[in-house]
Amino acid sequence: MTEAYVALEGGHVIEGRGRAPGTARGELVFTTAYTGYEESLTDPSYEEQVLTFSYPLIGNYGVREERFEDDRVHPRAVLAKELTEDVADWLAEEGVPAVDHLDTRDVVTDIRDEGAMKCGIAVGDDVTEADALEQLEQCKGMSEHTDIGSQVSVDEPVVRGEGNDGETVALVDCGAKGSIVDSLLARDAEVHVLPYDATPEDVASVDPDVLFISNGPGDPANYGAAIDLVQEFVGETPVAGICLGQQIVAEALGGTTEKMDFGHRGVNQPVLDLESGQVVMTTQNHGYTVDEPGDHLEVTQINVNDDTPEGLDGIDHDIITRQYHPEANPGPEDTLDFFDDVLAMADERAQRAVPADD
Ligand SMILES: NC(=O)CC[C@H](N)C(=O)O
């Protein structure tokens, strides 16, 4: 059997079964999702993290590219109770170390007690505990990855749905899930996908009906260029954001964000809409949260479990953001109307911009 060692912050090393070889390090997090492993594994927001699945069997319905959110696997390594052959082979092809036959109940309990932590992984025929500990030694905290956007963003602008007669969206790609772009295209938007460090001139040249900040990995404070864009365009252009996007919008407008102990990752996070009183089930993947929204944003939705902000609206400007993933891949699909609301907000602006007929 291939050796597999996982070194946890503090130096405790656990042993499992090696399913895909290699060494890796990253922030150890867990998802409670019981479906959607292909979507999670290809979600750019997992960059620089080691993903533990708490659901005990991962891979039971195969691996299909049509369910991918991006063209590669993003977590640095994968931990599970049991991985099927399909998933183990896929991770091996991608060069992403994988370990199973772990007691993931213990791993998850450690993360819940201690918070998301650094870890080091070593998997292979000749690896030792020392290899995993060496990886741990080199592991950085998430906030120390100061240019993480460059690892997940497009390098050059890309236009999707060119000529569509719906609204024009400038999507700042901080590591956007593919299904966010698809959700906009399905509503006939023309989507200009811009690099995470796009300049105000880049956005102005698109003349968008909405500036949309995507999801993405790491600390929102490390996305200075996107924060500047929100400050530059708010009031003139409607602004929307998902996940990291919500955090960036808050940072830009005088709010604050903070790191959570172990975050929200799963597909059944309950969210209360404060105006309607309705609760929806949501897909989530985040380790930071908005702490104070500031004077320009109002909290419209909260997490039922811990009251953290899940939706923000602009008080004096056209802004809507969500902390969860309304594109709902792999579901549940309670939240898709977010895209209709964003495009309706964009359409109002587009109508205002058209000069009235004499
Ligand atoms: N999915 C995301 O956009 C994650 C946002 C941010 N990186 C966090 O962990 O909170």
From TrEMBL:
InterPro entries linked: Anth_synth/Amidotransfase (IPR050472), CarbamoylP_synth_ssu (IPR006274), CarbamoylP_synth_ssu_N (IPR002474), CarbP_synth_ssu_N_sf (IPR036480), Class_I_gatase-like (IPR029062), CPSase_GATase1 (IPR035686), GATASE (IPR017926)
SMART domains: CPSase_sm_chain
Annotated ranges, domain Carbamoyl-phosphate synthase small subunit N-terminal: 2-122
UniProtKB keywords: Amino-acid biosynthesis, Arginine biosynthesis, ATP-binding, Glutamine amidotransferase, Ligase, Nucleotide-binding, Pyrimidine biosynthesis
Region CPSase, residue ranges: 1-167
Pathway as given in its UniProt record: Pyrimidine metabolism; UMP biosynthesis via de novo pathway; (S)-dihydroorotate from bicarbonate: step 1/3; Amino-acid biosynthesis; L-arginine biosynthesis; carbamoyl phosphate from bicarbonate: step 1/1
GO-annotated biological processes: 'de novo' pyrimidine nucleobase biosynthetic process; 'de novo' UMP biosynthetic process; glutamine metabolic process; L-arginine biosynthetic process
Top EC class for this record: ligase
Self-association and partners: Composed of two chains; the small (or glutamine) chain promotes the hydrolysis of glutamine to ammonia, which is used by the large (or ammonia) chain to synthesize carbamoyl phosphate. Tetramer of heterodimers (alpha,beta)4.
Protein role: Small subunit of the glutamine-dependent carbamoyl phosphate synthetase (CPSase). CPSase catalyzes the formation of carbamoyl phosphate from the ammonia moiety of glutamine, carbonate, and phosphate donated by ATP, constituting the first step of 2 biosynthetic pathways, one leading to arginine and/or urea and the other to pyrimidine nucleotides. The small subunit (glutamine amidotransferase) binds and cleaves glutamine to supply the large subunit with the substrate ammonia.
UniProt-listed PANTHER family: CARBAMOYL-PHOSPHATE SYNTHASE SMALL CHAIN, MULTIFUNCTIONAL TRYPTOPHAN BIOSYNTHESIS PROTEIN-RELATED
Family named by the database record: Belongs to the CarA family.
HAMAP family per UniProt: CPSase_S_chain
Protein name: Carbamoyl phosphate synthase small chain
Annotated organism of origin: Natronobacterium lacisalsi AJ5
Chain's gene name: carA
